[in-house]
Amino acid sequence: MGHKKLIRFRAIEGFRNVLQYPKHMPGTWHEFFQNNHPITLELACGKGEYSVNLGREHRNRNFVGVDIKGNRIYNGAKIAIQEGLDNVAFVRGQIDHLNEYFAENEVSDLWIVFSDPFLKKPKNRLTHPRFLKLYQQVMKEGGVIKLKTDSRELYDFTHEVIAEQSCSIVEDIQDIYSKGKATGALAIQTFYEKMHLAEGRTIYYLAFTLPAHPIVVPERRKKEAEEDAAAE
Ligand SMILES: C[S@@+](CC[C@H](N)C(=O)[O-])C[C@H]1O[C@@H](n2cnc3c(N)ncnc32)[C@H](O)[C@@H]1O
Question: Which NCBIfam families match (predicted)?
Fold first, then answer.
C-alpha cells in the first residue's frame, strides 16, 4: 500500500465523522447528528463532493457519504471537519451491507453518483434489484433515488429495472448540460464527473421512487448473478 494511502487510513481512524463498517449505528444516527433532520445518503461517494456541497447548502439536513475506499472518503471528511459541517458524515463500508448500517425508515433519500457501470457484472450495479431491495429496507416510503451517470448502459439498465419493478420516475434527463438542467444539486461536479466531461461524455440523470410493495429480485437476474459468480 502506498505511503499516502496509509497516512489517510490512519487519519480517518481519528476522524469523528468517519464510521468504519458501523454495525452499531442502526437506529442511532439522529443521536450521532444530535437532531432529527432527514438523512440523505451519497452512495459510491468517492471524495464526497455531494455530501460536502449539499451539507453546506442545507444545514437543516444530514448527509452521509458511503464508499469502501477510505483514502477517497478522507478528502470529504477532512473538508467537513475543517468547515465545521457537523451535518456531514461518512461510512466506510460495503453498500451491499447498507441494512447493517442503517435501520428501517432511517434514510430519507439517496444519491448514486457516477457509480461504476460494471458492464460485465450487472449484479454489482447500484440500481440492480438486489440493491433496490436494500434501499427499500432503510428508506422512508416515497424517498427518491437519484442516479447521475455518464454510462448510457447504466442509465438504460436502470430504466429496465424501473419498469420491471414498477418504480415511478420523478425526473429523467438525457444530457443535463445540453438541456440547461445542470442547476442546483445537479450542478455539483465530482472528481469523476470532471474527468468524464473533459472527455466530452454525456451526463444522464434519472430520479425515481420505489413501489410500495416489496422489491423482488427476478429469477432471471438471480441466475445471471450466479453465472457471474461462477465465472469469477
Ligand atoms: C467511479 S467512482 C465514483 C466516485 C465519486 N462518486 C465521483 O463521482 O467522483 C465509484 C466509487 O464507488 C465505490 N463503490 C463501488 N461499489 C461499491 C460498493 N459495493 N460498496 C462501496 N463502495 C463502492 C468505489 O470504491 C468508488 O469510489
Answer: PRK00121.2-2 (NF001080), tRNA (guanosine(46)-N7)-methyltransferase TrmB (TIGR00091)
Give the domain ranges of the chain. Answer: 3-231
Task: Please tell me if the CB atom of residue 67 comes closer than 6 angstroms to any atom of ligand 1.
Answer: yes
193 is in an annotated binding site: yes
| Homologous superfamily in CATH for domain 3-231 | Vaccinia Virus protein VP39 (3.40.50.150)
Where is 213: in which H helix or E strand?
Answer: none
120 in a labelled binding site = yes
pLDDT tens-digit map of 125-179 = 999 999 999 999 999 999 999 999 999 999 999 999 999 999 999 999 999 999 7
E strand segments, the chain: 18-20, 39-43, 62-67, 88-92, 109-113, 144-149, 168-174, 204-209
The residue from 86, 96, 116, 228 that is catalytic is 116
Distance CA 66, CA 47 (A): 10
Q: What is the end-to-end Cα distance of the chain in Å, rounded? A: 24
- Enter the C-alpha cell of residue 186: 445537479
- Number of Cβ within 10 Å of residue 218's Cβ equals 12
Q: What is the pLDDT of residues 78-109, one digit of tens each?
A: 999 999 999 999 999 999 999 999 999 999 99
109 is catalytic: no
Cα separation, 219 vs 222, whole angstroms: 5
- Hey, which of 21, 115, 119, 126 would you mutate to test ligand 1's pocket, going by the most ligand atoms within 8 Å of its Cβ? 115
- Cα of 115 vs centre of ligand 1, distance in Å, is 5
The interface predicted TM-score of the complex, written ipTM, equals 0.99
The closest alpha carbon to 204, from 170, 172, 167, 162, belongs to 172
Q: What is the DSSP letter of 215?
A: P
